[in-house]
Amino acid sequence: MIPTEAFQGGNFNPGAYALNSPDAKALKAQIDLLDTIYLVLNDEQKKQFPTLIGMYQHHMKFITSPQMCDSAKKGCDNDKSKSCGAKSCDTPKSVKPTPKR
What is the full DSSP assignment across 46-98? Predict the structure, then answer.
């Protein structure tokens, strides 16, 4: 939806459009979520957070794509991945997988 706040008094306000667009609202929600998560992390977790959130975003990109797990690429944009959805293509060796519950 186009934000009506951007069209007031016969003028178009690009700033109001940017602040009230669906993409801006989604970005603000994501920023608020990451900020809240970061507040509860300890120093070691804060060091690991950028890598882990990057892996999560990489994984989600392929979960939502129509070519999720074709046999050649296993859902990744390069040939490094060996298991669909279980591990990011760029997972550092220092990151250990979470054990199944």
Answer: HHHHHHHHHHHHHHHHHHSSTTTT-TTTTTSSSTT--STTTS-TT--TTSPPP
